[in-house]
Automatic annotation (TrEMBL), chain A:
<feature type="transmembrane region" description="Helical">
    <location>
        <begin position="170"/>
        <end position="187"/>
    </location>
</feature>
<keyword id="KW-1133">Transmembrane helix</keyword>
<keyword id="KW-0472">Membrane</keyword>
<feature type="transmembrane region" description="Helical">
    <location>
        <begin position="129"/>
        <end position="150"/>
    </location>
</feature>
<dbReference type="InterPro" id="IPR000515">
    <property type="entry name" value="MetI-like"/>
</dbReference>
<comment type="similarity">
    <text>Belongs to the binding-protein-dependent transport system permease family.</text>
</comment>
<feature type="transmembrane region" description="Helical">
    <location>
        <begin position="12"/>
        <end position="30"/>
    </location>
</feature>
<keyword id="KW-0813">Transport</keyword>
<dbReference type="InterPro" id="IPR035906">
    <property type="entry name" value="MetI-like_sf"/>
</dbReference>
<keyword id="KW-1003">Cell membrane</keyword>
<feature type="transmembrane region" description="Helical">
    <location>
        <begin position="232"/>
        <end position="254"/>
    </location>
</feature>
<keyword id="KW-0812">Transmembrane</keyword>
<dbReference type="Pfam" id="PF00528">
    <property type="entry name" value="BPD_transp_1"/>
</dbReference>
<dbReference type="GO" id="GO:0055085">
    <property type="term" value="P:transmembrane transport"/>
</dbReference>
<feature type="transmembrane region" description="Helical">
    <location>
        <begin position="274"/>
        <end position="300"/>
    </location>
</feature>
<dbReference type="GO" id="GO:0005886">
    <property type="term" value="C:plasma membrane"/>
</dbReference>
<protein>
    <submittedName>
        <fullName>ABC transporter permease subunit</fullName>
    </submittedName>
</protein>
């Protein structure tokens, strides 16, 4: 198991290298630069700035500098912030984004799997239809529509929860953004769970479990849940990265100080270092999450282990 | 219907059992049709006997076996087991009764949970029915059973996909006998196996039957296999019993035309003998159980059928001691 994880980890290195390289050059193709502002600076100052950040060197040399720094774990300076470099800025936003994303992720799994299982076990009966219809609402409506509605109802009309902001970081500030982020994923997870659960429940070994005299609850817990989770797990990798990266809109609707905010500003200002840094950070995250998914696969299915 | 004079206690009594399935209507406006898979089946099974159930594909053999064990709920009739009608029990009561009535399935590998080790698969019934056992005691029981079915104890931590069909069926048998059941329904247990392996599994079942005092219901379309293991036999056609009796009598002198046709279609290993015998060739396929013919179910394909067969279902009559059949034109023994 451990050597399996290690092998998978090694195989991610070329993937990361290709992604960094592609990102670096594509970003430079975009017109404009980090110091093109509304108020144009004197050419001499621009010259100095460019020289300071090595922007006057040939592109290939800049690339080698960047990769060299990266290998030493340095994400480089931010062009738009004097006080913090890229790594520091990411670290400032990360706790918020991470808390939001992971809470939403957990909530999506719990709701999704529970609803999916109920739907499968009561296939084409009342609970299946009612839950299915409810969950569809979460999938169909975009978060920028659901968020203001929830703010209006729970924040203003009922005044149960704060409309936005991070406050002291307590639970009540988290509820609305987390629910908004979790809903669409809970919906998709529940559909995947329902489908695969129905398939598994028709398998011969489930019939065997019934014939053995294992009760219906144990049959589901011991025999059906694991195989039914296989397709769900493969969805969880991408879902986790969506939740961590895609909180952009939700963060701005609720005025939360996560990474998303830095990313969008950096892209608009051609802050090469910041954009690259954020992209690399997300990439590592996605690769890492996919690795976890692969390991979870091996745990769920003994046949994968020996490959 | 089977021989009432055999000594021994009745273990299982099936009375007028009828199992129907609703076939979904093809169009929204049509009513769903009913498929009668098991039709008015009655028999009695004595303790320690082995009952063979034979018939063509789709005649309701498996449905009958599963209806007895309540894996499929029947619509009408009674299944009397340990003084109670299983059809009246709650799901939880039936679950508890499964300790004494088990089943072995046809597809051995697909019937095992691919994510469990063999040891866990075999031990699982114990965790449910004898939860007080310690881990060590449970392991001991599992190893004991594995040895009894001819599995090497070293295999205990392997997964089902690492086994051959014959070994997998041994695992299926081990998990069925570990709770010391009284009745085991063997639902085509050897059909998916090579002939040489079939023999081994049949020998194993015969051995276990003796060791554990099992009563078996053995479902198969393979007459030679049924003959090898059964004391009694039921011949099913379109969900109905057409002939029943003790194995030796029925095989030596089949009375119902369908039984005769079925037996004459069974292959004989000796080509000389095979050439000598006269085969009865039936025309056409069995009628659809959704739309059974009037009268006797076999009448459209029967070479003996007359007007009465086309209007009335023939009653079940005693042919001779230990044999009964449902036919107006059955072969009766010469008057003594």
């Amino acid at each position: 198991m451990l050597s399996y994880a290690f092998r998978r980890l090694l195989s991610t290195i070329p993937v990361l290298w290709i992604a960094v390289t592609a990102c670096f050059f594509v970003l430079r193709l975009a017109p404009g630069g980090p110091f093109d502002g509304e108020r144009s600076l004197p050419p001499a100052i621009l010259q100095n700035l460019a020289a300071h950040y090595n922007l006057d060197k040939p592109l290939i040399q800049q690339y080698l500098y960047y990769v060299g720094d990266l290998l030493r774990g340095d994400l480089g300076p931010s062009f738009s912030s004097e006080d913090f470099n890229v790594a520091q800025q990411i670290m400032i936003g990360l706790p918020y984004t991470f808390t939001l994303g992971m809470t939403a992720f957990a909530l999506a799994i719990i709701i999704g799997v529970a609803v999916g299982c109920l739907g499968a076990l009561y296939q084409n009966k009342m609970p299946d239809y009612v839950l299915g219809a409810m969950i569809l609402v979460g999938v169909v409506f975009p978060n920028f529509l659901i968020a203001p509605i929830l703010q209006l109802v729970f924040g203003i009309q009922l005044a149960w929860l704060p409309v936005g902001g991070w406050g002291d970081g307590s639970l009540k500030y988290l509820v609305l953004p987390v629910v908004v982020m979790a809903l669409p994923h809970a919906g998709r997870i529940s559909r995947i769970t329902r489908g695969s659960m129905i398939e598994v429940m028709n398998q011969n070994f489930i019939r065997t479990a019934k014939a053995k005299g294992i009760g219906p609850r144990l049959t589901v817990m011991r025999h059906a849940l694991k195989p039914a989770m296989m397709p769900v797990v493969s969805y969880l990798g991408p879902a986790a990265s969506y939740l961590l990266t895609g909180s952009l809109v939700v963060e701005s609707i609720f005025g939360l100080p996560g990474i998303g905010r830095y990313f969008i500003n950096a892209a608009l200002n051609r802050d090469y270092g910041m954009v690259l840094g954020t992209v690399i950070f997300y990439m590592v995250l996605i690769v890492f999450l996919n690795l976890i998914v692969d390991i979870a696969y091996a745990w769920l299915d003994p046949k994968v282990r020996n490959r | 219907m089977l021989d009432q004079n055999t000594p021994g206690q009745t273990l299982l009594k099936v009375e007028n059992l009828t199992t129907q399935f609703e076939i979904e209507a093809k169009s929204f406006f049509r009513k769903p049709t009913m498929l009668t898979a098991v039709n008015d089946v009655s028999f009695e099974l004595k303790e320690g006997r082995t009952l063979g159930i034979v018939g063509e594909s789709g005649c309701g053999k498996s449905t009958l076996g599963r209806s007895i064990l309540q894996l499929i709920r029947a619509q009408k009739g009674r299944v009397v087991w340990q003084g109670k009608n299983l059809l009246d029990l709650t799901p939880e009561q039936i679950r508890l009764a499964r300790r004494d009535m088990q089943i072995i399935f046809q597809d051995p590998i697909a019937s095992l949970d691919p994510r469990m080790t063999v040891g866990d698969i075999i031990a699982e019934p114990l965790t449910v029915f004898e939860p007080k056992l310690s881990r060590a005691q449970r392991l001991e029981r599992v190893q004991e059973i594995m040895a009894a079915v001819g599995l090497v104890p070293e295999m205990i931590n392997r997964y089902p996909h690492e086994f051959s069909g014959g070994q997998a069926q041994r695992i299926g048998i081990a998990r069925a006998v570990i709770t010391r059941p009284k009745l085991i329904v063997c639902d085509e247990p050897v059909s998916a196996l090579d002939v040489s392996i079939q023999g081994q599994v049949i020998t194993l079942l015969r051995k276990l039957r003796k060791e554990f005092g099992l009563t078996l219901i053995f479902i198969s379309h393979d007459l030679s296999v049924v003959r090898l293991i059964s004391d009694d036999v039921l011949v099913l056609y379109l969900g109905r019993i057409v002939e029943a009796g003790d194995c030796a009598t029925v095989f030596s002198a089949p009375a119902h035309p369908y039984t005769q046709a079925l037996f004459s279609a069974a292959p004989i290993p000796d080509p000389k003998l095979a050439r000598q015998r006269s085969r009865i060739r039936l025309q056409g396929d069995p009628p659809s159980p959704m739309n059974p013919p009037p009268g006797c179910p076999f009448q459209p394909r029967c070479w003996k059928s007359t007007d009465i067969c086309r209007t009335q279902m023939p009653p079940t009559e005693l042919v001779r001691q230990g044999q009964s059949a449902a036919c107006y034109h059955m072969d009766r023994p010469p008057e003594a």
